[in-house]
């Protein structure tokens, strides 16, 4: 680990000032500290923001559920308001990491975590995400767990967050505070696919800080849930996952929100599946027909071609769980 200067922010303004001068924010540290230990990340200044007042979970006047960026994952998963409104969020959090990590890791930090691609984390290997222009050895090397959606010639690494998949399905916004004031960015626009700039992973500007995540109100009743498929049951990242939220009234699907994880360079919304569902009555036949569109646009590599069919099966299974049918 390289040497660095550590400072603890006593307020939002101090945190923003320190970051604007080149500091990096530190909250739970469950990702950043690991990357520093591996010398993948080498910040000169760490700004500890763990004491800032960004931990509350509140319901705004318009019915938006606001989760503070520094709320711990375990706290959010156990929060009765989140669990009652959006079980898919709690299930994604509970499937994200070990209980020990969930008591430390934060909501904002979870969204900012970086890929688990072994080439990215090996500083002796080339990686366009770590060193732009150096190459993407995963394309010709080991890529079984890598993305089949949203990839480019520059990068095929998946985004590792389970929480982000659930939030993408629910049309969540990321609230950001910086030198230019406060703004809200849709989660689906906040996390960036690699394109020709894989080193640009998010829409944060210099010195900007995530303050909260907003989940807008949805029609009721809203059934939701999260399914994660992985090589082993515990302490493993997704091969595929599906976040499903359905509004069913009068026996007809009025709204459908779906996103997939483990298969995309960012959490991947499934609009073709959603369109097939809306206006239809739940049935096993409908789930199968809709899920067949889940991998539209996929560009698998030889070693992860299996994910195309696995994604369809994952989505179909979770539609059956959430939507019922016969």
TrEMBL record:
SUPFAM superfamilies: CO dehydrogenase flavoprotein C-terminal domain-like (SSF55447), FAD-binding/transporter-associated domain-like (SSF56176)
Keyword entries, A-Z: Oxidoreductase
GO molecular function: FAD binding; oxidoreductase activity
Keyword Lyase attributed: no
Domain FAD-binding PCMH-type: 1-220
Cited InterPro entries: CO_DH_flav_C (IPR005107), CO_DH_flav_C_dom_sf (IPR036683), Diverse_Substr_Oxidored (IPR051312), FAD-bd_PCMH (IPR016166), FAD-bd_PCMH-like_sf (IPR036318), FAD-bd_PCMH_sub1 (IPR016167), FAD-bd_PCMH_sub2 (IPR016169), Mopterin_DH_FAD-bd (IPR002346)
Origin superkingdom: Bacteria
Entry keyword Oxidoreductase: yes
PANTHER family (UniProt xref): OXIDOREDUCTASE (PTHR42659:SF1), XANTHINE DEHYDROGENASE SUBUNIT C-RELATED (PTHR42659)
Name of the protein this chain belongs to: FAD-binding molybdopterin dehydrogenase
Organism: Streptomyces swartbergensis
């Amino acid at each position: 680990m390289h040497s660095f200067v550590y400072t603890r922010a006593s307020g939002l303004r101090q945190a923003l000032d320190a970051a604007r001068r080149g500091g990096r924010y530190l909250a739970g540290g469950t990702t950043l500290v690991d990357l520093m230990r591996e010398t993948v990340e080498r910040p000169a200044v760490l700004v500890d923001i763990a004491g800032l007042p960004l931990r509350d979970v509140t319901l705004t006047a318009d019915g938006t559920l606001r989760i503070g960026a520094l709320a711990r994952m375990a706290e959010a998963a156990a929060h009765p308001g989140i669990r009652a409104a959006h079980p898919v969020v709690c299930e994604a959090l509970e499937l994200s990491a070990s209980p020990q990590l969930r008591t430390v890791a934060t909501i904002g930090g979870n969204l900012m975590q970086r890929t688990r691609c072994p080439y990215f984390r090996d500083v002796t290997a080339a990686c366009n995400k770590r060193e732009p222009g150096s190459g993407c050895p995963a394309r010709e090397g080991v890529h079984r767990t890598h993305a089949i959606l949203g990839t480019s010639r520059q990068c095929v690494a998946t985004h590792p967050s389970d929480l982000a998949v659930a939030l993408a399905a629910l049309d969540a916004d990321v609230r950001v505070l910086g030198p230019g004031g406060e703004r809200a960015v849709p989660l689906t626009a906040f996390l960036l696919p690699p394109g020709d700039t894989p080193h640009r992973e998010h829409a944060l500007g210099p010195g900007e800080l995530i303050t909260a995540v907003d989940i807008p109100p949805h029609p009721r009743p809203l059934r939701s849930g999260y399914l994660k498929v992985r090589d082993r049951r515990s302490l493993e990242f997704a091969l595929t996952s599906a976040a499903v939220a359905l509004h069913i009234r009068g026996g007809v699907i009025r709204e459908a929100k779906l996103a997939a994880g483990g298969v995309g360079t960012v959490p991947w919304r499934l609009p073709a599946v959603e369109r097939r569902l809306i206006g239809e009555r739940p049935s096993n036949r409908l789930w199968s027909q809709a899920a067949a569109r889940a991998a539209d646009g996929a560009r698998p590599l030889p070693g992860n071609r299996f994910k195309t069919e696995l994604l369809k099966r994952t989505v179909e299974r979770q539609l059956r769980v959430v939507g019922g049918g016969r």
